[in-house]
Design brief:
The structure is a single chain. Helices cover 36% and strands 8% of the residues. The chain is of the alpha/beta class. The strands form two sheets. Strands 2, 3, 4, 7, 8 and 9 form a six-stranded parallel β-sheet that branches.
């Protein structure tokens, strides 16, 4: 693996573990989907920032568009991809190109895909043929933002980057791409990945609020396929080969150590250039897919992966799986990190989330948040609703351990773990 790949991965790990505050998880309609619980050898491969109608770099495919090259490779291995597409970055001006090899290579104030000054060669708005091919070959499309503008500030990497900030502006941007896919292709997007994984926005809103509004799930990833980081080698061919090895060898090593390593995992890749304007993904993807096929894996869309199991910590073998699978489609019973944590005690706020209709829980919380201009408890809207309906005592607190249940809605139980409460509710 090249030095810059190692440094990049180490830096991300440090930021996540040391600099970034520990994230507190709560019951949520929107969950961050990184990996699902399964013992079957299935996984998903995702591609950000396309479609791209420029050739691979270096071009060894007779000028074919990069997205076509990736689709050809997927077809060769009978694999299905999930393409996290943008709409059009052509409106992201005035701007200037960033330094080659830096995170801002495609623009200082904004991103420009597939490259600076060539926005018309990328995005769903300009690439009808590529979008149609993706859909005709049964791949999945998800929403990466129409203009690929980050939701909030990210000073650590993108100090000069313009951002949306507003909940309403983020919804407007995503809706524009959602509407394009629906009206032109009759395709319903159901998942999204925020640009550069920036979640926090102004006035306490986050990407989870935006996805609640859009009725999306948050598509993340559990494994970095490494096709986006450049090698530091000065010779272009040597750099490309190092980048290809950085994609393929870690997959080989992981499978040799544990053949079930990729069960239920979501792998991240790019449908575009890396920071040095090369496309190692065009050359390394076949190596990754060949290894997965050798070990008996089926590469499916993220949607199909979630049909196997929508949870990170509960598989089909659990007696409650079928009932909870039905319940999670209408009620907030899963935490924002996609875990159920069934054996832990339930709180009064979590009971409120179970009993409150989604529209009431969200609209009430957003109303309180807009009024206070700051983040409120994730269960604030549900608590308000349940107190009005007499389902919770007037002095109930969102994080207080649950000690009683409304007898008209639950069979009698003394088990106030989440498993026990859900069993009593669904019986």
């Amino acid at each position: 693996m090249s030095l810059i790949v190692k440094i990049g991965k180490k830096g991300k790990s440090i930021v996540k573990k040391v600099i970034t505050p520990v994230e507190t998880h709560h019951l949520s309609y929107t969950r961050r989907i990184e990996q699902i619980r399964t013992d079957r050898r299935i996984c998903a491969m995702t591609f950000d920032d396309g479609p791209m109608d420029l050739p691979a770099a270096p071009d060894r495919f007779d000028g074919r568009a990069l997205t076509d090259v990736l689709l050809d490779i997927l077809a060769e291995y009978d694999a299905k991809g999930t393409f996290d597409v943008v709409g059009d970055t052509g409106a992201n001006y005035p701007d200037k190109a960033g330094k080659k090899g830096s995170a801002a290579w495609g623009g200082v104030k904004y991103d420009h895909y597939p490259d600076f000054g060539k926005d018309e060669k990328g995005g769903a708005a300009h690439n009808d043929r590529l979008i149609r091919r993706i859909l005709e070959e049964s791949h999945q499309i998800t929403n990466h933002g129409y203009r690929h503008i980050i939701f909030g500030k990210k000073p650590f990497v993108y100090g000069a980057r313009e951002y949306l900030g507003s909940f309403d502006l983020a919804v407007e941007d995503l809706t524009r791409l959602h509407t394009l896919l629906k009206e032109k292709y009759d395709y319903d997007i159901i998942m999204s990945r925020p640009p550069h994984y920036v979640d926090k926005m102004d006035r306490g809103f986050t990407s989870y609020d935006v996805y609640d509004k859009m009725n999306y799930q948050y598509m993340a990833a559990s494994y970095d396929g490494a096709g986006w980081l450049p090698s530091t080698a000065s010779d272009p061919e040597e750099a490309l080969q190092a980048e290809i090895r950085a994609m393929v060898e870690p997959v080989r090593e992981a499978l040799e150590k544990d053949p079930d390593f990729f069960c239920g995992q979501i792998i991240f890749q790019k449908d575009g250039y890396n920071m040095s304007r090369r496309t190692p993904v065009a050359f390394g993807l076949s190596g990754q897919l060949a290894l997965l096929k050798e070990y008996g894996y089926r590469v499916v869309t993220v949607q199909e992966l979630m049909e196997e199991s929508p949870f990170a910590d509960l598989g089909r073998e659990d007696p409650l799986f079928k009932k909870l699978n039905r319940l999670q489609k209408t009620s907030a019973v899963v935490f924002s990190d996609n875990k159920l944590r069934l054996d832990q005690p339930m709180t009064e706020g979590e009971l409120a989330m179970l009993l409150t209709p989604k529209r009431e829980a969200l609209s009430r919380r957003w109303k309180i948040q807009r009024k206070t201009l700051k983040k409120v408890h994730a269960y604030a809207g549900a608590m308000e609703y349940c107190m009005e309906k007499g389902l919770l005592a007037a002095d109930a607190r969102p994080d207080a351990p649950l000690k009683t249940l409304p007898s008209e809605l639950f069979r009698e139980t003394t088990d106030y773990s989440r498993r026990g409460v859900y069993e009593a509710y669904m019986s």
